[in-house]
Amino acid sequence: MPLPKKHHLLSRYDSFFKGLTEKDRIAILHDKDPDGICSGVIISKLVERLRGKRVDLRLNVPGSAYLPTPEIAARLKRRKINVLIISDISADNEPSFVRSVSKFARIMIIDHHKIYNTFREKNVIMIKPQLLQDKVAPSSYCTSKFSYDLGNRLCDLSDLDWLAAVGSIADIAHAPWMDFIRKVHRRYKAPMRKDLFTTKIGQVATVINSALVFSLNNVPLAFKTVYGSKKPSDVLRSRLHIFHDEVQDELDKWVDLLDRKAERHPEHELIVYYIEPKFHIKSTLSTILSLKYPNTTLVLLSPQGGMITVSARRHDQKVPMNSLLECSVRGLKGSSGGGHIPAAGGRFRRSDLLRFRSQLLDCVARQRKSS
Questions:
Q1: In what order do the strands lie in the sheet with 263-265?
Q2: pTM value?
Q3: Could you list the residue range(s) of the whole structural domain that residue 303 is in?
Q4: Would strands 57-60 and 297-304 be described as parallel, antiparallel, or unpaired?
């Protein structure tokens, strides 16, 4: 484990969690992907074991939003929440939300994305892998594994090791943790394979993801299912598995349509792919395609309401996707963009599609020149 034995942030983390009581009104706000689900469950289980009571409120960012919204802040205040734990969300990319909630609640942000802001408020703690160590890149230290390593220092979370492994596989963040991944597979009698998604542990990631991709209304069901599961097979036998086949058919369809429908810019090693799928497969599809085209920048666009959502991938990491999307949405009202070097997401208004495309091409050209 690359975490240091002593660090001022670890001391603040320890004090925060050890200080939780039954009287606190605690909310967990997590991302709506497998890493967000698994890390949210790990942290929630830690809270329950430390204070003898479950979290009082579970929330996820709504719809196509990537960042916390003012509506969430208002709901937290109405529910008299005085402790907020944020998992796998770049909350520091929305500092106004953090500062508004900090007026009535203590906040802990546990995340592995790029650092966008820091906070001087004494009741706000932000902990990210790159703030504690430099051996593992933050994109390879997913929030599930990070939460597991942090929490395991305070109480025994060894029965949740499979959740840390699921999150790592789902985020394509397993490479630094292969000894741990093998150990988890042995413990649950799951044969290892070259393609980790075909193992029992990897199938859990796929089943969770398929449910979320089928409908974001399944986020609460996925969280509840994982929270109540004691081992990987519990998730595989749950209601979540019923969504897999339809989602897989839709993924196969859009993989096959790439050659006919995608916009290619070989001079920039860029593929722009506009899709209108039945389900929210954009992020999953972009990951599949990035493994197929590892030396290409892939930007997938999909309409959602009055917005267009974006997933960007570059498996060889020669172009930072977080910086690319930040650059491409700059100046677009109501837009957002960010994430990791190999994988990022964002959104902008439909009316700004042509402007986004123009800025994207300019930003790609500039980044390739400077690299």
A1: 263-265, 270-274, 297-304, 307-313, 343-349, 336-339
A2: 0.86
A3: 262-370
A4: unpaired
pLDDT tens per residue across all 371 residues of the chain: 689 999 999 999 999 999 999 999 999 999 999 999 999 999 999 999 999 999 999 999 987 777 899 999 999 999 999 999 999 999 999 999 999 999 999 999 999 998 999 999 999 999 999 999 999 999 999 999 999 999 999 999 999 999 999 999 999 999 999 999 999 999 999 999 999 999 999 999 999 999 999 999 999 999 999 999 999 999 999 999 999 999 999 999 999 999 999 999 999 999 999 999 999 899 899 989 998 999 999 999 999 889 999 999 999 999 999 999 999 999 999 999 988 899 999 999 999 999 999 999 999 998 877 76
Residue 222 vs residues 41, 66, 183, 210: alpha-carbon distances, Å:
10, 18, 25, 10
Gap between the Cα atoms of 57 and 162, Å rounded = 24
* Residue with token string 């802001």: 117
3-state helix, strand, coil in the chain (%, to 5): 50, 15, 35
> Would you say 123 and 92 are in contact if contact means Cβ atoms under 8 Å apart?
no
Strand, helix or coil for residue 166: helix
User: CA-CA distances (angstroms) from residue 269 to 109, 306, 360?
Assistant: 36, 29, 13
Domain identity same for 214 and 270: no
Q: Tell me the helices (H) and strands (E) count for the chain, helix number first.
A: 15, 11
3 part of a folded domain: no
Which CATH number characterizes residue 68's domain? 3.90.1640.30
Q: Are strands 270-274 and 297-304 parallel, antiparallel or unpaired?
A: parallel
**Structure tokens, 175:** 């490479």
207 and 326 together in one domain = no
CA dihedral 223, 227, 233, 235 (to 10 degrees): -20
Residues 165 and 281 in one domain: no
Residues in the chain: 371
Q: How many domains does the chain have?
A: 2
Q: How many CB atoms lie within 10 A of CB 295?
A: 10
Q: Strand 307-313 relative to strand 297-304: parallel, antiparallel, unpaired?
A: antiparallel
Amino acid at 50: L
